[in-house]
TrEMBL record:
It comes from Neobacillus ginsengisoli. PANTHER family: PROTEIN YJDN, PROTEIN YJDN-RELATED. It holds the Pfam family 3-dmu-9_3-mt. Residues 30-113 form the PhnB-like domain. Gene3D superfamilies: 2,3-Dihydroxybiphenyl 1,2-Dioxygenase, domain 1. This is PhnB protein.
């Protein structure tokens, strides 16, 4: 979903099931499809990196990611994808400090703040 939202290039994705077995860090079967590390390239020098937590992890609401983009079109595209099934906190709109600014919580509970300078 995030790759589609930001029209980014997935540089790397590793899942817990890709790790070699380690008795000091056992991975239960139900967690083997969770993402251990993902790297999404947004621009020449901009990346988003992330990983999954436990499936029952409810702390995503403590996470807020701020993204500064260089075009209104890219921001609107990402906004449209992330707001599907989510909750808009502040409409994406012109402000006194930026061409566009807004905040949305996606369907996974992650809040995104957008700014277009």
């Amino acid at each position: 979903m995030y790759q589609k939202a930001f029209d980014g290039e997935m540089i790397a994705i590793q899942k817990y099931g890709d790790m070699p077995p380690n008795p000091e860090f056992p991975v239960v079967e139900s967690d083997k499809d969770l993402v251990l590390h993902a790297e999404l390239k947004l621009t020449e020098s901009g990346y988003i990196m992330g990983s999954d937590g436990k499936k029952d992890f409810q702390d995503a609401e403590k996470v807020c990611i701020s993204v500064e983009l260089d075009s209104e079109e890219r921001a609107k595209n990402a906004w449209n994808v992330l707001q599907e099934g989510g909750t808009i906190h502040m409409d994406l709109q012109p402000t006194f400090f930026s061409k566009l600014h807004g905040s949305v919580k996606d369907k996974y509970g992650v809040t995104w703040m957008f700014t277009v300078m």
